[in-house]
Every structure is written in structure tokens, then in C-alpha cells.
Amino acid sequence: MSKSPINKANTPESFNDLKIKTPPTSTAGFEALKVAFGHAIKYMKLTDTFKISLKMNQKGGFDCPGCAWPDPDDERSTLGEYCENGLKAIAEEAQNKLVTADFFLKHSVDELAGLSDFEIGKSGRLAEPMFLEEEATHYKPISWKDAFNKVGKHLNALSHPDEAVFYTSGRTTNEAAFLYQLFVREFGTANLPDCSNMCHEASGAALSETLGVGKGSVVLDDLYKADLVMVIGQNPATNHPRMLSALEKCKNNGGKIIAINPLPEAGLMKFTNPQNPIKLLTGGTKLADVFVPITINGDVAFTKAVLLKLLEKEEAEGHVFDKAFIEKHTYGYQAFVDNLKMYDFNECLKLSGISKNIFDEAFNLILNSDNIIICWAMGLTQHENAVDNIRELVNLLLLKGSIGKEGAGTCPVRGHSNVQGDRTVGIWEAAPQAFLDKIEAKYGFKPTSKHGYSVIDAIKAMNEGKAKVFFGLGGNFISAVPDTNYSAKGLANCNLTVHVSTKLNRSHLVTGKEALILPCLGRSEKDFQKSGQQMQSVENSMGVVSSTKGVLEPCSNSLKSEVAVVCNIAYATLKDRTKINWLNYVDDYSLVREDIQEVVEGFQDYNQRLNQPSGFYLPNGARKRKFKTATGKANFSINKLPNWKLKDSELIMMTIRSHDQFNTTIYGLNDRYRGVFNERRIIFMNREDIKERGLQEQQVVNLKSEFNGVVRKANHFKVVGYDIPKNCCATYFPETNVLVSIDSYAHTAKTPASKSIIITVSVE
Ligand SMILES: Nc1nc2c(c(=O)[nH]1)N[C@H]1C(S)=C(S)[C@@H](COP(=O)(O)OP(=O)(O)OC[C@H]3O[C@@H](n4cnc5c(=O)[nH]c(N)nc54)[C@H](O)[C@@H]3O)O[C@H]1N2
Ligand SMILES: Nc1nc2c(c(=O)[nH]1)N[C@H]1C(S)=C(S)[C@@H](COP(=O)(O)OP(=O)(O)OC[C@H]3O[C@@H](n4cnc5c(=O)[nH]c(N)nc54)[C@H](O)[C@@H]3O)O[C@H]1N2
Ligand code: SF4
Ligand SMILES: [Mo]
């Protein structure tokens, strides 16, 4: 009897050998260089490490597959424009070990599912297409042709195209993403969930409504010029390391920084620039001027407290708000002020968990700054009231006129290296009608206007038998999504699950009745087609589109590019129903870009402009104070305080990333900047909370969440006392995704609330 899908979806409960040290007071420096190169040399060929370190993020080189932080427009450091985690991302992709047919012959699916995520990832790069037959215990090799036909056969056997789900992860390039959504729409559905649904969807929803563009408004240069940068719900030292260089530059120019976070993340405190030999010798730069140790989900309350005090000052003294901006560019000011006055400052401050002293320090910086940038990431977007978090901060920027001018604006720091680009070119289950009309005009078929499934809807549809084929272009769906056990049942309900992947992951092991693994080229590898070596393109967090071209030889001769996989599947599925000459695109990707420029705004002269060394900026209305909202102005919004309350024994838990992982890819078992080594099954708890419960450091506990009467459990975690606000705790994602209810998500955006899970801890 093979393991159940639930059993396979969960990470094994075994421990490693936990060591705790005092967290460092500064990040990066020599240590980061040492760790990064140590990692690269351990897993990659030495010559490849050398090639990579010369070409990564250099003009005309290839774009780091790590996060979406932008590269400087002008000078690029000769000491290398990358960071520790960028190099780790490459070392993971350019591994010198291969997962071949022999590997799958030796190891059954059940056996592989018993490995930790770290071990699964370290098996190596996927080297050839594999197929899992119904009831089979092992994957077997399959030819590319048979694999494409199998997908086509399953898709064509569905009673409606809406019974298929087409997921995308954010590493996919613009070219592959555009073709993929085009195929999905011609096939007849808009079921295009993507990792963005679990990530910055709440930012997109809040910013579109208030500022008319679902992206941030600042460029890198603005960060250097800001009076004040607020970094909220973000851990840049781990997740966007080169952002610290930009913050350092801001400080050197006299700017101030406020960090708002339940954890005193080391990178927010002090940074030693590894690309600056002088700083390496003289010690780092202090970053945060004020650290605000907010309670989890206390951000609306804190922002309201700031807004109330600003209003009080404005009414008493004037000159606090930018009245000319409010008058000319905004809508809804009076209704916003009337609503704000219904809240009590002390009540808000109490809910935020912040002392009056710290509040005053932060408040004075905000009050005295004209050019404010607010940066944020998952600490704001993964709550039920995530959209409120962001809208309330937009209110703050609007009052100060801090939008659409130098050194001011919104900066949602995007996650995956091309997640923003994927959405720009059409990976969207709720694409605007104007975009669909352009597709119709160009290709002559009518895409459905009906919205498709987002991630949450797709999981429900699979569970309810409404979706029967799951196709993933990149990513690791089962480990990334909430409610692991429910989601696993959904996938197991499918007739076919397909993954286009570079690396083996848990999603290949939690399958439908049949399953396919289609191995593809990675970003760092050369992609040769009929017209020669292909270049592709990506969009970073600040709306710059630039080229990327691999430098390494492909790890296996049996790989195909994502573009080739998508086009061949489209061809095998649509056959003579299609109006598109799919296989032409495979020969020459510049043809895809010619199409994109006709369909997507801002891409004119795409091929030519991509040859500019730093790429080009996409248009952004908010940057120019042109707000494309329903009112034609920047909208104030009215937001409520969250209404959850903890019972005596309960804690609020956030699921966060360690320093040694990229989402579900586990690079290693350390979390160096938090002083945790050689273990992931831990729970960070406030030391008083530990004491009150009669627990000891490193004691093994079980975690339980209860949502709408449904109990979910994650067992076997070691307690780690940490500097975290009372009643708050933290665990690593994905080990505790099993505790996140499928029904707990952000209003308007449906981002799973994986940063505010109410749990109890019990002794094992
Ligand atoms: N090396 C590396 N780089 C990555 C990734 C990776 O896994 N590894 N992932 C990429 C992706 S897809 C993304 S989306 C980004 C994620 O980047 P981050 O958002 O920085 O990642 P998280 O670890 O989820 O960290 C969330 C931060 O928010 C804080 N936080 C949690 N809850 C709250 C809250 O209620 N209020 C406030 N103010 N803060 C809170 C946490 O303490 C933590 O510091 O990084 C990208 N870059
Ligand atoms: N509890 C909890 N859950 C979360 C989060 C959280 O903070 N807490 N964060 C959420 C966020 S922000 C995100 S973005 C999602 C991430 O969700 P996903 O994007 O689905 O997950 P990743 O771990 O980034 O995907 C890794 C896999 O992508 C494949 N891959 C890597 N590079 C390539 C490539 O170039 N091409 C192809 N085709 N495949 C490739 C590899 O096989 C690898 O195993 O997770 C979400 N889930
Ligand atoms: S900051 Fe992000 S994009 Fe830049 S090198 Fe590091 S991981 Fe890569
Ligand atoms: Mo993300």
C-alpha cells in the first residue's frame, strides 16, 4: 500500500542537531562572501562558479534567478553585482549532480517523499522527462513527444477547459509566460493561478484601487534620495540582500530609516557592504534609526496611531499635510478624516504593542520628512487584513504628498525574480478586459472574460472534482500553498499532474493518478534554437525590463526551454484548432517579443530596447502623479482595525523564511542571522511565554491551529527563546503550512494569511 497523499505532502518530523548562538549584530561582510563561495564550490563545478561570478547581473549577462531586487542603472560593481543568496540560488540551479532515469528506478515515489526538502533538493538537477503511470510506484522515462501528446490528450478529454489549472511560479521569463497564458486562453480558460496569489496580490489589489497601478512607484535612485525609508514586514538581509546597499547609500546621503518588524532582523540593524573593501575593514553602517518591534498584525493599529497624531498636529499647527497635493490629486480626504477621528490613539497604540517612547521617535521622523518611501513585503501581505495594511500606508503617503516625486513613494519589494513581469505579460486569472481585447484583435480568437481560479480557488476546485488536470510552469505547488493536507487531497483527485521544473521537489511526489516531470533549462544555461543562442527578458521590482542570457552549458542534453515546452504542448493540444503558429516561436524568441509589443502596453521597440545595456522602464502612472483609478485621482481609503483576539493559551504565529532557503528550496539548515543552526523544526517564542507555559528551551512541542472549528496539527518542533513580542511566535515555511486554513485569506486579494495563524502549543 503506498503512502497517502497527506503523508507524502508533509515534511518528515525528524530532528537534526539544533545549535543556538547569539544572533550577529551586523550582516553580510566577509562571512557572507565566505559562505556564498563555500556553498557554490561545494555544489558546482569550479569553472562554473568562476563564470557565474563574472556574469551575474552584469549588463548583457544573465539576471540573478534569486529575488526581484533591481540592478543599478549606471555603474555595476567590478567586485560582483550579487549577494550571498544570489550565489546560493545559482549553486542550487547549476548543481553538478543529475536526477536521471536511473535515480527514479532506484527510488520509489514513497521513498523520495520520506526525505526532507533539503535532501530532495540536493538530489540534483532533473535530467530527462519522466512519467508516473496510474498505480505505479516509480517514475519511468518518457520521450518528449509522448509527454506532449499525453498532456494534449488529457486536456482534450476534459468536458470543459475550466477543468484544467495552469499554475506559474515567478521565475518564468516574459517570453515563456506570455506564450503560456496565450495557450491557456486559446485553449479556453482563464485558470491561471500563480505564486503572486500567495505573495504580493494584496499589494496589487491595494495599490490598483488607491493609486491606479498594481506595482510600486519608486525607482532605485529614489531610495538614495529619500528623507525617510520605512521598511515594514520585510527581512532584506536574507530575502533582498542588495537592498541593504541601497539603504546604506540612503543613509550616507543623510536619509533615515525606520524598521517595523516583530523581529529585530539583523540586516535591518547594521550592514557591512561586502562590495566595499573600506567598510569591510572599518565595520558596517548602522541602518535602522528607529526599530519598532510591532506585534504581529499590529500594523494597521500602528499606522492609525501615526495618522491620528499627524492629524492632531495638522489641525493645531498646519503645514503637516501637503494640502496642495491633497487638493489637486486625491479623492476622499474628508471621508477619510471623519472616519479616522472615530479611533482612539491610545487604543491603537496598545493594539500595536509599541511603547510611547518608540512611537514618538518614529513619529518625529515621519512628521519631519517630506520625501518618504515605504518598502514592504510578506509581513504586510499575508494577513486577512493585508489589503488594509497597505491602503492605510498609502493614506500616510498621500497626506504627506509623498508619491510621484523624487525620493518618495511606494516600494512593494517583489519576491521571485520575474513575478512582476509574468503578471505584466498576462499571467492573471482576472486579467483586465482591455488586455483580452488586444489578444482577440491580434490573434482572432475570443478569450473568455470569466475570471479563472486563483490559487485558493484552484485548490478548492481540485477537491470538489471541478478541476482534473494540474499543470505547473515552475514552482512547488504542494509545499507553497496553505492547508497542506487539504491541498494534497485536491492534487490526488486529479487525473494528471504535470510539472515543468529544474529541480526535484515535493510536488513531483504528491501526484494525480498520472504524473509527468518535464525538465527545463535554468536561467544560467545557454539556450540554443534554430536562429542561434536565445536571449530572454525579465522585469524587476521597479518595472525595469532587461535581458537575460545563459552562460553555462546545459546540465543535460535532454532539457528543453520553457518556451519550447509551452509551444509544443500548445501545438499537441490545439492541433488544427489553433490560429497560432506555435513552433515558429521556438526557433526565434524575438518573434514572441514582437507579439508582446503589440499586446502589452509599454513594450514598443521591445527587441531594440532590450539591447540597451540596462534595459528599459515600463510606464508607471503613479510615478508621474497620473492615477488611473476609478475616480481618476489617488484615493484615500477607510480601513478597520483587525478584530481577532487571542484566548489565554493562544499565540499568533507568522511563517517566515530562514536565511538558508529560497521559498520551498532548502539550501541548508542554518538561519545564521537569527543564530539558529542545523535545524528547521523550531518555534521562536517570547521567553516569558515559554516560562508561563512551563516550557524549557529546546523542549519538543506540538502545534495546533483551530479555524472555524477545524483543528489542524503540526507536531515535533523545538522551542527557541527569542526577542519576539509577547504572544507572538514564528516558525519556518513550509513546515507549518499545514496549519494555515484554506479559508483564512486576505479580503479582496485572497492571499493566504500565513503570517497570522492563531495556534496553541502543547508538550509532546
Ligand atoms: N534568499 C531568499 N530570498 C528570497 C526568498 C527566499 O525564500 N529566500 N523568497 C522570495 C520571495 S518569493 C519573497 S515574496 C520575498 C519574501 O521576503 P520577506 O517578506 O522579507 O520574507 P519573509 O521571511 O516571509 O519575511 C517577512 C518579514 O516580515 C516580518 N513580519 C511578519 N509578520 C509581520 C507583521 O504582522 N507585521 C510586520 N511589520 N512584520 C511582520 C517577519 O518578521 C519577517 O522579517 O523574498 C524573495 N527573496
Ligand atoms: N506559509 C507560507 N507559505 C508561503 C509563503 C510564506 O511566507 N509562508 N510564501 C509564499 C510566497 S511569497 C511564494 S512566492 C510562494 C512560492 O511558491 P512557488 O513559486 O511555487 O515555490 P518555489 O519554492 O519558489 O519553487 C521552487 C521550484 O521551482 C522550480 N524552478 C526553479 N527554477 C526554475 C526555472 O527556471 N524554471 C522552472 N520551470 N522551474 C524552476 C524548481 O523545481 C523548484 O523546486 O510560496 C508561498 N507560500
Ligand atoms: S539581491 Fe536578489 S537579485 Fe540581487 S543578487 Fe541578491 S538574490 Fe540576486
Ligand atoms: Mo513570493
From TrEMBL:
<dbReference type="Pfam" id="PF00384">
    <property type="entry name" value="Molybdopterin"/>
</dbReference>
<dbReference type="InterPro" id="IPR006657">
    <property type="entry name" value="MoPterin_dinucl-bd_dom"/>
</dbReference>
<dbReference type="InterPro" id="IPR009010">
    <property type="entry name" value="Asp_de-COase-like_dom_sf"/>
</dbReference>
<dbReference type="GO" id="GO:0008863">
    <property type="term" value="F:formate dehydrogenase (NAD+) activity"/>
</dbReference>
<dbReference type="InterPro" id="IPR050123">
    <property type="entry name" value="Prok_molybdopt-oxidoreductase"/>
</dbReference>
<dbReference type="GO" id="GO:0043546">
    <property type="term" value="F:molybdopterin cofactor binding"/>
</dbReference>
<feature type="domain" description="Molybdopterin oxidoreductase">
    <location>
        <begin position="125"/>
        <end position="501"/>
    </location>
</feature>
<dbReference type="InterPro" id="IPR006656">
    <property type="entry name" value="Mopterin_OxRdtase"/>
</dbReference>
<dbReference type="InterPro" id="IPR037951">
    <property type="entry name" value="MopB_CT_YdeP"/>
</dbReference>
<comment type="similarity">
    <text>Belongs to the prokaryotic molybdopterin-containing oxidoreductase family.</text>
</comment>
<dbReference type="GO" id="GO:0016020">
    <property type="term" value="C:membrane"/>
</dbReference>
<dbReference type="InterPro" id="IPR041953">
    <property type="entry name" value="YdeP_MopB"/>
</dbReference>
<feature type="compositionally biased region" description="Polar residues">
    <location>
        <begin position="1"/>
        <end position="14"/>
    </location>
</feature>
<keyword id="KW-0408">Iron</keyword>
<keyword id="KW-0479">Metal-binding</keyword>
<dbReference type="Pfam" id="PF01568">
    <property type="entry name" value="Molydop_binding"/>
</dbReference>
<keyword id="KW-0411">Iron-sulfur</keyword>
<keyword id="KW-0004">4Fe-4S</keyword>
<dbReference type="GO" id="GO:0051539">
    <property type="term" value="F:4 iron, 4 sulfur cluster binding"/>
</dbReference>
<dbReference type="InterPro" id="IPR010046">
    <property type="entry name" value="Mopterin_OxRdtse_a_bac"/>
</dbReference>
<protein>
    <recommendedName>
        <fullName>Molybdopterin oxidoreductase domain-containing protein</fullName>
    </recommendedName>
</protein>
<keyword id="KW-0560">Oxidoreductase</keyword>
<dbReference type="GO" id="GO:0030151">
    <property type="term" value="F:molybdenum ion binding"/>
</dbReference>
<feature type="domain" description="Molybdopterin dinucleotide-binding">
    <location>
        <begin position="651"/>
        <end position="756"/>
    </location>
</feature>
<keyword id="KW-0500">Molybdenum</keyword>
<feature type="region of interest" description="Disordered">
    <location>
        <begin position="1"/>
        <end position="20"/>
    </location>
</feature>
<dbReference type="GO" id="GO:0045333">
    <property type="term" value="P:cellular respiration"/>
</dbReference>
